[in-house]
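User: Show me an example of a complex going from sequences to structure tokens.

Assistant: Sure. Here are the input components:
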Amino acid sequence: MTPKPRFSANINTFNAGADRYVLSGYGERYPTDELIQMATRVKGLTGVELVGLWHVNDNNVEQIRRQVADAGLVVTCVTPDIWASSKWGRGSFTSRDPNIRQAAIQEVIKSMEWAKQLDCEVIDLWFGQDGYDYPFQGDFLSAWDRLISGVIECADHLPEVKIVLEYKPKEPRTHCYIATVGKTLLLIDKVNCPNVGAMIDVGHALMAYENTAESAALLQYFGNKLFYMHFNDNWRLWDDDMTVGSVHTIEMLELLYWLDQMNYTGWYALDIFPYRENGIRAAQESILWLQGLHNLLDKIGRERFGAVIASGDSMEASAMLREAILR
Amino acid sequence: MTPKPRFSANINTFNAGADRYVLSGYGERYPTDELIQMATRVKGLTGVELVGLWHVNDNNVEQIRRQVADAGLVVTCVTPDIWASSKWGRGSFTSRDPNIRQAAIQEVIKSMEWAKQLDCEVIDLWFGQDGYDYPFQGDFLSAWDRLISGVIECADHLPEVKIVLEYKPKEPRTHCYIATVGKTLLLIDKVNCPNVGAMIDVGHALMAYENTAESAALLQYFGNKLFYMHFNDNWRLWDDDMTVGSVHTIEMLELLYWLDQMNYTGWYALDIFPYRENGIRAAQESILWLQGLHNLLDKIGRERFGAVIASGDSMEASAMLREAILR
Amino acid sequence: MTPKPRFSANINTFNAGADRYVLSGYGERYPTDELIQMATRVKGLTGVELVGLWHVNDNNVEQIRRQVADAGLVVTCVTPDIWASSKWGRGSFTSRDPNIRQAAIQEVIKSMEWAKQLDCEVIDLWFGQDGYDYPFQGDFLSAWDRLISGVIECADHLPEVKIVLEYKPKEPRTHCYIATVGKTLLLIDKVNCPNVGAMIDVGHALMAYENTAESAALLQYFGNKLFYMHFNDNWRLWDDDMTVGSVHTIEMLELLYWLDQMNYTGWYALDIFPYRENGIRAAQESILWLQGLHNLLDKIGRERFGAVIASGDSMEASAMLREAILR
Amino acid sequence: MTPKPRFSANINTFNAGADRYVLSGYGERYPTDELIQMATRVKGLTGVELVGLWHVNDNNVEQIRRQVADAGLVVTCVTPDIWASSKWGRGSFTSRDPNIRQAAIQEVIKSMEWAKQLDCEVIDLWFGQDGYDYPFQGDFLSAWDRLISGVIECADHLPEVKIVLEYKPKEPRTHCYIATVGKTLLLIDKVNCPNVGAMIDVGHALMAYENTAESAALLQYFGNKLFYMHFNDNWRLWDDDMTVGSVHTIEMLELLYWLDQMNYTGWYALDIFPYRENGIRAAQESILWLQGLHNLLDKIGRERFGAVIASGDSMEASAMLREAILR
């Protein structure tokens, strides 16, 4: 029997979402302890993600550990903030300023330490500001040199904490260096540390015209490097961060099938921006969709999927899915 | 009770599909009479589309009429071929050569007459070659002048045959003049003939980042101008002409809901290119998906959809769809 | 001789740009009077745009009028803010809440009155929040009803102020109702007021896979409805709001050619977000590019462009442009 | 002094281009010897590419060698045809049929041998049909196994001939396995043969939202694996195969800069589809654009580019390019 997924969500899911037009946010803002409480109101949610400095810091780490534990939750990921203030605007690990580079590495290392104190296995390394916007602005070679050496420095610091690279083709830069599953694997390969792997953020992969199922398979094919998953949905061209199940039904099913098939046993974390939705309900819907789709795989039978994929018969796949979805 | 859709398909669905790499086609080629016979083997298919000159001409129109009738089918649409030979390569109605323009109009008029002889209400006017490829190549003003006057000339010729404009943003030109639902309605408005309306080809609308449901609603909002529908699916960025249900489940459901809501009573025609699939099976799958999704609307209840849309509550929509699809 | 373009820019160009990751902005924030002063430091800039409530209100309108005049500038456009706070998050003119709808109309009317007091001809009506994010969320018919009646109400209030509709396919909603040049013209046609027209924001049009030159030609073709222009550049898939000239050279040239050709005599306003750039320099670069490209048209000779377009000879166009750009 | 690029073109450039609508082609078709003659009429063109079986085979290889030499040309690349007939429709190296897989490998080996006989260093391995169209159709693991082992088998056969992998995200499949520069480098790394590298087809990279300059830099960064270049242009979303210089001016300049910077010394080959253009003129325009842009780099001065890139100052880049292009 395939084990059931375990679900997590960034506690910011429950906070007001903002965009470049409504900078003050579409909803209400809450303190961290309330955000943790809100997480407990989502059925099936047993883990939470925290952002370094936003939710956890040197002074409150023990208190946060207790709050999360008291809420019956575990911390599944700490995300160092190396992208949300103007100081990172021209890059973190790839900044042309060595002080910024060193500060970014220190920020990551701090998050690794907080993660360890929180019994959390994973930190999420997203190089959101590391890229370029304009032609003739990117300095590709030094960028890769710095990404490689910086990740090694972090990875060596605390080998028991996993560094999970999160790729994204663009935003906030028009071009990010670590843009695709392929580039992510190249970086992992160069870094060559057992505690460095990748996550797939579903929306980021869709933006890159990747089939998320294929990307998951590749990350496992090249050394079992899929350490974590971020779920959401979008309209394929931008990181809309919508709830799971809102647009893509069948591709999500294909992803879930391959995750099990490739023995992915990590968390199923939500990374959604419910700007105009209630965060608790948005998380709940996402989990219910994921659970429902996962159950559908069992109902149809894994071996039927295996046979269809072995045959490559797209119309057999269509019939199988149609009967399951529309019976 | 909402009436059930009636299904049609271009008989070319059953012929070998070709692309620019495999010009000789991925499958086998059949004569017209066999293509008609193949249509009878698709359960639920009661109509066929024909292409002018390819399948019907002055000499065989009566014979084709009989063959289709004997097969228990009706002709739902005749498509004039004003795009499939090099003579149309630089445009049909908008060609800079007045002889080509006149020839194109004549081709359309011939198809209208064949349609009438075949008791077919609709011809499909697709301006595939009318556009431009390179910067500084398009002559926008004369193009619109010619489109307007050309369509009027055709429409006036046989007012009892409906001319259905099929828009598409690109391919075979990198830019087609009649690219979006908005431009189509502008042309319809200028032409201002009761027998001129539009179809939505689902894939063309997806390529244009249109929500097909919204496009259908608009065509009806602006004077009940949705005369016909072409169904297929794609990956949103190109006219992949895949079978219905293969990628987009929920958007297709939203489209079907709005078609009924806006009192669309025309044909549900397939426009798919099953390059590597069996054409009969591809058509069958598409119809079964459409029927299944249409039934799902009834099962959920139209009034529930109405209430959800009135509220604009996206998570209520999510829950309703999830329960119906994954129960 | 073709008259030279007159340039304007939103004074916010000189303020810190923010996005959903760096909500506090990438640069420094300045008060309105300093922003106006900064505009004077851009050579060739003679106009400014203001945003209602942000820069101008009932209490300061006379003072702003004087400040702008003293700076030797004119106000070219006032943009009512009906999208930058959470109250507009579910729509302005198309909100399901009649109070919000009325408030939005009042906001527009106030901006029209400020515009009049500022001797400014134009207000920019951008329906950024009027659209939907999720399937089954949009209520297309009531949305159009409300857009039409709301615009009429505003237009009738002060017929001497021009209302300029700014279309955009998405952001901040995943789907905006007034998404393309075609839909904009449909709305203009329904509204049918002489003081209602459109602008093209170059980046919005690029996102919609429009050729901006063609869109400009169409807006003039259908009743001289191009009232205003927003210039910027992007990578074609998102509203990156980059400086003019940064990515697309030849398409910008084609647009400038057609603007003159179609007798566009309105302002050439910048709508750029120089997140990580100095605003004054970014505006200056944009104007210098526009001036340089405009001069290039004269150098090549308008009649040569006319001949190339009349012929449709793409390689002749290529040679002409190549010689001009690379001589 | 930077050496000047050497130019090549597939002789098919001069033949009629066809697409899925105009299967018989937009122009005239010519025999191979005439195509070779046509190549001599393009100034600056000193190399030609041939397609296996189409232009060269076991019986005519010596004759072709002589014809090319007599024309004063050299063969720069032989492309095995493993994608242009229905037998390859469901894959070549990744076919589920072992006979097809073996046949594909044999076809490549034959092209390698012809290349050797023609004193040609390079064969172009494009896995156009190796991918999938529908969800649940791709069998990712066996596909990669087969790609790796198949390429090794070919590479080992004739180590003195370079195998150049050509990536493309889609077409003719909706998803190709070797889709991006990242995946290409992963395959190269696994294959690990000194005679296996990659090319960048500019249009394929643009479709994948890659910056071609960055992709070139990466291929060199990871072991000098950029062996060949295919030049063309497009509108960024599809492989339009337009002439160089038609749309993207500045990005092409950035690519040319980085090719020199990364010591790329291979051919600058054209891969254009001048459907409605004269092939000789289209090739000539492309070469003149490339030469002109390359000269512009020298005129501006390589060291100025280096300084701008080192600073990351996008407005300095803008000013430098503007002055060079619009002076």
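The lines above are the inputs; the final block is the predicted structure for all four components together. The two ends of chain C are 24 Å apart (CA to CA).
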